[in-house]
Amino acid sequence: MSAANAKALQAKVKTLAKNSKTITSDFVQYKHLDFLDNDIETSGKMYFKAPDFVKWEYVKPFVYVVIFKEKTLYINDNGNKSKVDIGSNKMFKQLNNLVIASVKGDLFNEEAFNISYFTFGENCLVYFNPKDEKMAKYIKSFHITFNTNGDVIEVKMIEPSNDFTRIVFTNKEINKTLPNAVFTH
Q1: Contact in structure between 128 and 141 (CB atoms under 8 Å)
Q2: Conformational region of residue 91, where left means phi above 0, alpha means psi within -120 to 50, and beta covers everything else
């Protein structure tokens, strides 16, 4: 992708991210592990509310909820609840920031990532490779696909082993009323 097209994409994505106060979307997550013949497929609903509430609600094939809320990660694994203080853990804090940024499509931080831009059919594909060595031990690269409106339609997180998690978003609604009760743990 040309530098001018990359700048235009950044501007479009940043404007959309800045104006997105809430996001609700269905998702299908594919976990690829080299030693398995087929990817592990799960699905559910993702909720985002500015500035930093994110909820991943898995409904198929099992019920599992993960909520990033302020500086805490809440997990509900079929009734077994736990929480992690991510504010005191630098790695969890970076992960939370990455989750929020990737949901909003606002990852264009050239101090933190080496970024490469590609056209992918009508869409744009952007590779984000972490510069931080500690982060790179956990995440080799993020690949985010944006549609022509600058909206995130797919996120792929690649681990150093080349196993990956790919999340495909569908039925996305932006700025629909989303009560705080959605993020109750």
Answers
A1: yes
A2: alpha
pLDDT in tens, the chain (185 residues): 899 999 999 999 888 888 889 999 999 999 999 999 999 999 999 999 988 888 999 999 988 998 988 778 888 888 889 988 876 666 666 666 666 676 666 678 778 889 999 998 999 999 999 898 888 888 899 899 999 888 899 999 999 999 999 999 999 999 999 998 999 87
Q: What is the pTM of this model?
A: 0.87
Looking at residue 123, its amino acid is N
Domains of the chain: 3-174 (2.50.20.10)
Give the CA-trace dihedral at 6, 108, 158, 89, to 10 degrees. 180
